[in-house]
Specification:
The protein is globular and about 40 Å long. It is built from three helices and seven strands; from the N terminus they run βββαβααβββ. Strand 5 and strand 6 form a beta hairpin. It has 124 residues and is of the alpha+beta class. Helix content is 16%, strand content 34%. The longest helix is centred in the middle third of the chain and has 11 residues.
């Protein structure tokens, strides 16, 4: 079992908005839901939308999030704006790495990928 630790610091105009610490653990080959992508939502999202981790069959981040929204329609307003684009305050990680393509969400997924969706917090 391999563990990857990542720290995300979101900066806007030189202010730290949020610091996310997450632990991504590679699944054992004999785990259930073999061949499925696991999508997990941060507590800041789960506080507003009752959603557990979801296992989906997806090849891109867009496919994975679309399936999550199909299963839990309330997620749409928290993840996407009126134009269907990922909201600016939402960060998506695949296997511990921040996605590169926020516009089309075309980052590829494999059968054992873990997607973590976080919502940046602000205020003081």
């Amino acid at each position: 079992m391999h563990t990857v630790r990542a720290i995300l610091i979101v900066y806007t105009e030189s202010l730290v908005l949020s610091v996310w610490r997450m632990r991504v653990t590679q699944r054992h080959p004999h785990d259930k839901d073999k061949g499925m992508v696991t999508v997990t939502f941060a507590p800041a999202i789960r506080r507003h939308v009752c959603v557990d981790a979801q296992s989906v069959d997806a090849r891109t981040v867009r496919d994975a999030l679309a399936q999550c929204v199909a299963l839990t329609p309330e997620l749409r307003g928290y993840l996407f704006n009126d134009q269907g684009r990922l909201r600016a305050h939402v960060a998506v990680f695949v296997d511990g790495w921040l996605i590169r393509d926020r516009r089309a969400l075309s980052d590829p997924l494999n059968d054992a990928s873990r997607v973590f969706v976080a919502q940046a917090l602000s205020g003081g």
